Amino acid sequence: MAKITFITGSGELIVAKGTSGSVMELAVKNKVKGIDGDCGGVCSCATCHVHVNEEFWDAVGEPGELEKDMLEFDDNVNKYSRLSCQLKVNEVPDGLILKVAR
Ligand code: FES
Predict the structure, then answer these.
(1) Which tens digits make up the pLDDT trace of 36-45?
(2) Which residues contact ligand 1 via a Cβ below 6 A?
């Protein structure tokens, strides 16, 4: 079971727990504002964009090529950007903190 804290654009903290599926699906299930998952998780919309807390970056890791290409179209990209549909709940570090990219 991974515990993930989402910080929304308005500063609201939402703590969600899950065991499977993608981080985007967990966020949508927990009504995290700003994570929409419009493409259903196939890496083609970037409405699941998050900034990984710096402390967890090494454990989460770099985006893949397809994800990088998708992120290029988003204005709010920084060096900690990931698309949460590409992160698996059972692979991310427990206690992970993600900020919703506005
Ligand atoms: Fe569309 Fe992640 S849900 S890119």
Answers:
(1) 999 999 999 9
(2) 24, 37-39, 41, 43-48, 70, 83, 85
| Spatial CB neighbours of 94, under 8 Å, sequence gap ≥ 6 | 1, 2, 3
Six-digit token pair at 96? 């992970």
37 Cα nearest atom in ligand 1:
3
According to the model, what pLDDT value does residue 47 have?
Answer: 96
Strands (E), the chain: 2-7, 13-18, 49-52, 81-83, 96-100
Cα 11 to Cα 45: distance, rounded to the nearest angstrom: 23
What is the block-wise mean pLDDT of the chain (102 residues), using blocks of 10 residues?
Answer: 96 98 98 98 97 98 97 94 98 98 87
Residue 69 burial by CB count (10 A; 0-12/13-18/19+): exposed, middle or buried? exposed
The Cα–Cα gap between 70 and 89 comes to: 21
